[in-house]
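Checked the freezer inventory, then went back to the computational side. Two predictions to log before the end of the day. The first one is the construct we discussed on Monday; recording sequence and tokens without edits.
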Amino acid sequence: MYERILVPLDGSELAEAALPYAEELAGRLGSEVILIHAYESDDEKYRRMHQLYLQKIVEATKRGVKSRLGTGEKGEARVDSALLIGHPAEQIVEYADRESIGLILMATHGRSGIKRWVLGDVAAKVARATKGPVALIRVDEKGLKASKKAKISNIILPLDGSKESEAAIRPVEELASKLKANVVLLHVIAPTYFVYSIPGETVEMPLTAEDMQRSREKAEHYLETVAAAFQKKGVNTRIEVIVGAAADQILSLADEIPADMVAMSTHGRSGISRWAFGSITDKVLHAANTPVLLIRESGGNKKKINNPASE
């Protein structure tokens, strides 16, 4: 599914921070890279300027892909480009859908503090509207340096037992098997649950020690079942069951490992706002220190797992 990788560029160093990741994936997976630049002016002098810019980046990207080709691998680095006129987000989404792009790689700027990720307007619109997977690369001064390495060796895949979260299993399985990356399957148990009380209020109740142990055992069994499927594909996998707030624990584990990518699914819907981020995904997306791979939940991505944790 990663045969064609799209990298939107706007001429900035920020946007170009996604290129090392595209080069790494293309070199390791044999993917074609398409560099796209959308601009709203159809002035001929600007078109020529954009063409020259893309030509320069295409050649540099080809060299980057070749440098990452595995030992003994044959074939040329396939890098192409496209200039589009119109609103950048709309043009990127339409192109990706029309050309059957397998993955969109975009950089988005970051800053320190609670809201460490501030999604750019274009990146946010693309992530919410495109049909396929999107990898968002957080970039700040530190991130620009880190992005040049762009090696993906450790991937965290959070799973809650739902069909929606399992939509990310197959894409991560394919990516990890080809990259020889390690996968950490994570399940986070909430320490409390909500019950309805009269007159219609909700009360937060802590899990008992017995309930907590039962939940942990079910979660471990579920993750072991998923891990077995990964291991059949030759993917080195381990499981983690943690108690706490889901988004916080995902972020904490990503920093602790440290992870090179967090892969999460998010439910989709038709229409202009085709992606509606779940609250946990949204929190991780805005606060992660590592690239986040978003998989839109759809029938084609689902991989049914017998999940005792949900019984």
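The second is the one RB wanted added to the comparison set:
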Amino acid sequence: MNSLYERIYPIMPRNFSYVRVSTIEQNVDNQIKEIESAGFIIEPHRIIKETISGSMPIARRKGFMRLLDKMEAKDVLIVTKLDRLGRDAIDVSQTVAKLEKMKIRVHCLALGGVDLTSSAGKMTMGIINTVAQFERDLLIERTQSGLARAKSNGAILGRPKVLSEEQCSEALNKINDGNSVASIARYFHISRQTIMRIRDCVPE
């Protein structure tokens, strides 16, 4: 239940926008004009501009991360296109879910300005989530096919062994002879952790 102060002086939502271009030769002016033409009024200091490739995951976009630090519950984020929210359907889906959890509304002009956290927006996100799941399944399928193909071609999968079987036996003999882990590691030019794994019978 809202406090008496909030009922008398309701907190007005703040509008933010995230505009992005891929190269320094481009500029964000057209995106800002598009947002203004849609009727959104945004203070200049609440417009986050970033120059970064659209293939970069949202979590690695410093500008967007800075935006999240500024926003609070009931704020509104306006973007021109979905790719401003992630590099693919999976990334976009996760970003919108995170913003919804923060109680932030998200308007995408390319989708008619619909709020992606509203009932209508959730229908759209349902389609995006379906595409995201398809992309996940496709990625898993490709990975498994690639591993199977590599294995059939004789490739050795997994982390390569640091020491050969003969060297492992030699290391164990040195351990049994009372040599320290540090001295054995120096002898083979490897880490102490590797020698300890061999000592404890943990395979590489």
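For RB: The beta strands are 15-21, 47-51, 76-79, 105-108, 114-115. The chain has eight helices and five strands. Let me know if you want it refolded.
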